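S1.2 Input.
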Amino acid sequence: MNRRSTATPIRPVLVGALASEAVKLWTLRSNQVLSAVALLVISGTGVLLSFSLLSRTTDARFAGRTVTAEPMQFVDSVLWAQVVVAVLAVLAVTGEYTSGQARLSLLALPTRSPWLAAKALVLAALGFLIGVIGAAISLGLSVLILTGSEVVYEPVLGESVSLALRSGAYLAAVAVLAMGVASALRHVVAALTAVLGLLVVAPLLLSSMPGVREAADYTPTYAGRRLISEFPSAAQLEPWAGFGVLVAWAAVALVIALVALRARDA
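S1.3 Output.
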């Protein structure tokens, strides 16, 4: 007589966890609002920049000068939107621990790792969508506003698509980094302080300190931004190498979160 295995297949468990996390993430009004704010930051800043460039063509201070624009200028605001995405990811994790929902979620799964993996994947997907859609809107509106004007702006479709996808990849990695830190710390204030300190404060401090300025280029923001911008870099990291540094930060945060999750009660 054959005995039916009681082991739960990993794939169905992860699929179920993904569905559950997606529902939890998107049904909260606060997450919808924060997602909309992030999109508005990216696209709205692009529109403001477009009109600012237009105003230069009639400004006497720029008389005789050629006003030019590059596609990368219209996705720089992704670096501001990352703050909103990071806050969203932190609240998505710490909110579950505060409400006790995390305990219920873990009780519904045979092991703890699918819950963490599902949350990371869902938040990464949301960050990716925010980056891609926001950058696409910003780049598209810039074309509509500047076409036919005196601003020299000649975007290439392939470059614009690439920028939109890279913007999504950047915000996806930031979301996973913030989620990992929040899962390890479990406290909203501590997690927000750590994440925003790492993304915003640390690179500014390091870049202003003689002797360690090059180290700032290996912080998450300064390394990852090489993918979507041409900011000066003391370390001269290549775009994908810089993004690799950001992914490494996110991976370390995720591993620490998994170790903490297995070692502590929910």
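S1.4 Remarks. The chain has a mean pLDDT of 88.
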